[in-house]
Amino acid sequence: MNALLICSGGFDSVTLAYRLASEGALSALLTFDYGQRHKKEIDAARLCAQQLKVPHLVLDIGHIGRQLSSALTDDIDVPHGHYSEENMKLTVVPNRNAIMLTIAFGVAASRGLDTVALAVHGGDHFIYPDCRPDFIRLFADMQAQALDGVAEVGLFAPYVHTDKIEIARDAARFNVPIAETWSCYEGGELHCGRCGTCVERIEAMTLAGIVDPTPYLDTQFWQTAVANSALANDKANAKADD
Description:
Elements: E1 3-6, H1 11-22, E2 26-33, H2 40-52, E3 56-60, H3 62-65, H4 96-110, E4 115-117, H5 133-146, E5 154-156, H6 164-173, H7 196-208, H8 221-241
């Protein structure tokens, strides 16, 4: 495998970068500047590429991102809580992965690479339709048609059927410098500890038994968010049973 990894600089994609590098399968990182407020993740991706000694491509698609309304790109408050909550849909950037993957396949084909890698995982399925297994399968099929006779490029998404806990275990297994990754949607000086991605990050490492060296502004909120999510799910299940 000679993989081009779409790397945001977040915990998930950097972990996959280290996993691929350990297997000698990482050829380059591709990062997108789509106008996200948390641009610090781009610096984290650049650092990852330097550490793993692979090329780092940064593509500015901000003119596209400005047309895609989201709490990540617009002047909209980033919601706090667990990803399973309804208000987290504000963080959906419509078609983001579809757009990025389309570009990534073209870049991979042009560079003679045989794989595009993506770190989407099962925890993304709640609200992000372009992170779900059916999307990944169908997109790979579509690209096989789009590049028919031009190049053979596969799609590698090893976490799509698992969860972030497995990513946390891989982070420990492959010695990922966790504190040097950036996940928080707020884009402040420190991870806020309250947005959906911070809550999910802390929860996953706690459940995996991994020490999280990341400094957070709020280290307790995640427990309340997880508890509220569990309570809401219990109520929904009870209502469905009625």
